[in-house]
Amino acid sequence: MNFWETKTLAEMTTEEWESLCDRCGKCCLNKLEDEDTGEIALTRVVCDLIDLDTCSCSRYAERCTLVPDCLDLKQHDFSAYHWMPDTCAYRLLLDGEALPEWHPLVSGRQDTVAEAGISVARFAIKESEVDDMEDHIIAWLPPKPRD
Description:
Low-confidence stretches: 142-147
Distance between the termini: 29 Å
Structural class: alpha+beta
Mean pLDDT: 85
């Protein structure tokens, strides 16, 4: 059995935890919260630290210092992050779901994330290129089934 099928998130080593990230970049999308309703809107705007070719943080070890709003999910109660995408491995495992076929730990290939339409690389823009984030609110659509 695979470690993600036998361990809880809390039981995983740092290496195991980090390997769950599929590098989709969805958690790096900027979010806007309505102060009255608490509703969260996603934008297609990402942090300037993300490398859009790999959807990886270019300064990962320093990200929480360089970007005060960046969260180290392992250091917090993950179940509180209801805004995480439905496709997120951490959320899936927390909810008792299996990892999807396109996940690199299942497929054995990182490029299956982009092939499945999960990656933000095809539509994201960096914060430094945006004047008004509200102009870039999106509705996240599930990936189209592959033929």
